[in-house]
């Protein structure tokens, strides 16, 4: 269901005449058609648009990939989160007036950036809005897997404690009691906002934190990678907790597979809060079944929404018997994330209309 609202004056400060066409070639129309495709994830804030611009806002709670083309065909500005926006929907024939895609998300892998670039459509994302929430989710997944909470709960619900007299060994990883935080070495792969926030939290728990360099990067003069980071292969070997929070790009697709699991320590915990496609799901399940690693916490999947049919990880969760916990791309969910996305959306839309996006980035 769509919700329509028409605004003739937003109350924001007026643009100076010279700014009306700043960074806009051709200039923006004075009345803007704004379409929000997925307000289900994060409700829109009251948009404040600079004078003398006015706008009509159309909001959709959910939009499927098949509905995108029809819904954005008259839009000047599109607000989105995760629905795929592909080249055919971005063509001049389908969306001739589209000038800005504002993503209420940190990732832009659902948007065809090449098609946007070819047409001069600006794409603005919302970086670091969910860093604290995702980092806290990393800690949650770590504790759940290191303490083997799921296997222990399964044993308890199956009356194993009552029938055997003890279930403490269900909390073991690699046939040994779980490590304490101060005995862990956490390897961070992807050191953006989430990676840095996770490093702070895990370091505060007493862990030794090492940050991975890019795979294949030449070592520095000190034997470490560039900027003092640890070579990727060394991180695989040394980390007892491996945290993935890097973007999905060609260089990171299938970054962690069977060969990488074989290099890890037998009680290593793998936490993936980045994107599906970075960790090979079949290889992860195999590594868990063959006890090459100690456990895994997963929040992202190759195909989303994930199901037993589409994801080996979800199927393995249903089967049980593995030290595996999976959450359905919920790491970002928090009140602070919502507030940050709403604030950043307002800033992105206003800066785009004022033509100050690049100037603001240069000041930052």
TrEMBL record:
Sorted keywords for this record are: NAD, Oxidoreductase
Q: Which Pfam families match?
A: 2-Hacid_dh (PF00389), 2-Hacid_dh_C (PF02826)
The D-isomer specific 2-hydroxyacid dehydrogenase catalytic domain extends over: 62-359
Q: Which Gene3D superfamilies match?
A: NAD(P)-binding Rossmann-like Domain
Renumbered to this chain, region (Disordered) spans 1-22
**Superkingdom of this protein's organism:** Eukaryota
Which residue numbers delimit the D-isomer specific 2-hydroxyacid dehydrogenase NAD-binding domain? 140-314
InterPro entries per UniProt: D-iso_2-hydroxyacid_DH_PdxB (IPR050418), D-isomer_2_OHA_DH_cat_dom (IPR006139), D-isomer_DH_CS (IPR029753), D-isomer_DH_NAD-bd (IPR006140), NAD(P)-bd_dom_sf (IPR036291)
Q: Fetch the CDD domains from UniProt.
A: formate_dh_like (cd05198)
Q: Where is the composition biased (Polar residues)?
A: 1-11
Q: Which PANTHER family match?
A: D-ISOMER SPECIFIC 2-HYDROXYACID DEHYDROGENASE CATALYTIC DOMAIN-CONTAINING PROTEIN-RELATED, D-ISOMER SPECIFIC 2-HYDROXYACID DEHYDROGENASE FAMILY PROTEIN (AFU_ORTHOLOGUE AFUA_1G13630)
Q: Which family does it belong to?
A: Belongs to the D-isomer specific 2-hydroxyacid dehydrogenase family.
| Name under which the protein is recorded | Glycerate dehydrogenase
Q: Which organism is it from?
A: Sporothrix curviconia
